[in-house]
Design goal:
It comes from Verminephrobacter aporrectodeae subsp. tuberculatae. This is S58 family peptidase. Pfam families: Peptidase_S58. With 355 residues, the chain is an alpha+beta fold. It has one domain: 4-Layer Sandwich (L-amino peptidase D-ALA esterase/amidase), CATH 3.60.70. Helices cover 24% and strands 25% of the residues. Strands 3, 4, 9, 10, 11, 12 and 13 form a seven-stranded mixed sheet that branches. The protein starts with 26 loop residues before the first strand and ends in a 13-residue tail after the last helix.
Length: 355
Amino acid sequence: MPSTPAPRIGALLQGARNAITDVAGVLVGHRTLDAGAIQTGVTVIRAHAGDPFRDKVPAAAMVLNGFGKSLGLVQLAELGVLETPIALTNTFCVGTVATAQIRHCVAANPECGRSLPTVNPLVFECNDGFLNDIQRLAVTEADYLHALESAGSDFAQGSVGAGRGMSSFQLKGGIGSASRCVPAPDRRRHTVGTLVLANYGRQAQLVLAGDPVGARLAAQAAAAAQEPEKGSIIIVVATDAPLDARQLRRLALRAGAGLARTGSVLGHGSGDIVLAFSTACTVPDRVERPMPAIALLHEELLDGLFQATADSTEQAILHALWHATAVTGRDGNHRAPLGEVLARLPSFAPARTPA
């Protein structure tokens, strides 16, 4: 990790932690597997501390490029709610993590799949096979439960959890997070928090806070610069603003603006998916329970949230690179952290000021 703070993106205020957990009630936990050729893990995001099967939250997803193997998006698109925590892991462990989500839901709701509906597990993935021996299927159901039970407001970023084996711009990628605050009509403010699993990008295209530094890095490593785009990024956006699923889909789309600023062109081999959810209300599981009565935010007031989403996404990606540490994994494959390669450059001139 560089010795200086990451450049600060945009002029909006950031939350106290500058993380997705600045949205009240949102919690994040990791399980990191670091053992030779096993460099992987699982990260869990909880929308609230309760049971999401009984108390769902509005949500929507936007698939920017569909080269991915995520699970649960079809029902999410149809019903517009989350009913499990959000899980991030590697490509080959999606099934294991989904099974863990189902077992956990059934343990809390014994009639799930019987007198109650089945549960829709939600698992996102990126391919960490360069650093991790992905064929070992190392992530277990117990690892998911560990990440779930350890979820809290403060959490590590960089080469941790699902981000342990991820690469980004042919450097070490991983988990990053950020938040931004937007004035609200009632003199309060709304918070937008973002968490990314960054595993995408070609080095020559890397832009850090407005500085096209990737071209200079690639000139020092011409062979690496020729690698094709074959990674992915998962972006999770949380807000406390009262939005429905349709509005959340609009919010999710704006994460693409922040992603593009870092140099992404949504390459052929990159699976780029955004999930957005709101904690402003919960939707009951049973018809006998009352539905929430809230005033949704007017469409004309969404621009501030759009800006916050774009800025916090770009900031979260910077944090993923900034906090990542070097990892050597399968067959001796190695990814250096951003700080190490920046130190080799004569200058780094971000267009934004450090936080």
